[in-house]
């Protein structure tokens, strides 16, 4: 428990936790890890503390004959056997997530996860379209652009240039598409937002390569083969390879 709590605490005070949960959950992770460590320390203290003095009880027990006629040594031996116990060995499985966090921390969800799940944009949801941020190009998210392009038909985008950041993943026709994972709570519920690219399409890039794309609205649409939902496009004017952001999710 100490190792497990320490591993969670280490991930929480660094940016490692952002691979698994949303940013706002950091205080809860820190509190939970400290609680685990405190519980483990208290358990160790309880197990390793000196045995309480039982001289009076032992003396009284020595003076009384055993009820079944056996001598005192046998009676005391039975008592010792009666109170002996063993912790469940399954508790040692807690070492596995510790090793995972400390030695081989799983990466953030990427192109493989995006290829296994359908796009998160569905017509059954409601979306808001506030004015785009100031500046040229307007920096926005893959989710925001995709929702405006798909359900607002680009009216809230107009002729403005936008700048998006995401990772490369193979599209249904083998061409690269831009994607970004979104979370409701943690990586377990992560879903991809997929965006097709027209114009100056990046080529020769491996999956999971992060790029920054600058472009304009395109009315072209594709289909996600996983859930048959529509995938909007962006008309790429320029792009550049970038490092993965600290928080890989939207």
From TrEMBL:
Q: Tell whether Transmembrane helix is among the UniProt keywords.
A: yes
Upper lineage ranks?
Bacteria, Bacillati, Actinomycetota, Actinomycetes, Micromonosporales
* Membrane spanning stretches: 28-46, 90-109
For the region Disordered, give the residue spans: 57-83
Q: Which domain of life is it from?
A: Bacteria
Which keywords appear in this protein's UniProt record, sorted alphabetically? Membrane, Transmembrane, Transmembrane helix
Every copy of the DUF1980 domain together lies at: 159-249
Composition bias type Basic and acidic residues, residue spans:
68-83
Source organism of this protein record: Micromonospora purpureochromogenes
Annotated protein name in UniProt: Repeat protein (TIGR03943 family)
- Keyword hit for Transmembrane: yes
Q: Pfam families recorded for this chain?
A: DUF1980_C
